[in-house]
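Marked as duplicate of an earlier ticket. Keeping the data here for the record.
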Amino acid sequence: MLNNQLQTKKFINFFRSTILKSLATVTVLAPVLMPTSAKAVTINFDQFNDREVISGDTFLDLGVVFDQELQIIATHPNRPVQSQPANALRNDPFGGDLSGYFTEAVDFISVYAGDHRPYNEDGSENKEILVLTGFDEFDNIVDSDTFTSLTADTLSISGPGIVRFEIVDENESGFGIDDFTFESVPEPTSVLGLLAFGAMGAVSMLKRK
């Protein structure tokens, strides 16, 4: 009887040691097996012709749909271009606010945006207050970024589950955009999570014994 108890205890200790080693292996391999690089897309509008009008779903295959038609501008001397030669702005009404949605939720958005006309005809400043806002599937604000400038600048937001965006000029002035970038971080591999969960459950059960 005593011999059987000793053998059972040795087996339990061996099993516990094996599980703990497995957990350590999962922890070590996780950075290797789990995808960690983000999937980023940048739209620079440079493949289109000057004054060309494109539909909002032109970039559907890339994962984003604009709610409005866009007009390409490549010749205006004050156009807000980050990467040459073109930028885009809302076609109707010309230069108004922009919005859209993503075919899959993203975690980060940035856009180079600004006015193609920093000064009014009378020489006064045509200052803009641009706001980029991201929303989740329930229309809650995930993040927002604002800048006030005479010229173009970069807006960027981040947070999990962004499915819709708005770019609004609170000064009601026209603006263009360039290098519209968005990215999503792949979810961790579920198999590793299940292995770790199962191993931790087994260790918990052995401890209770």
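See parent ticket for discussion. The mean pLDDT is 79.
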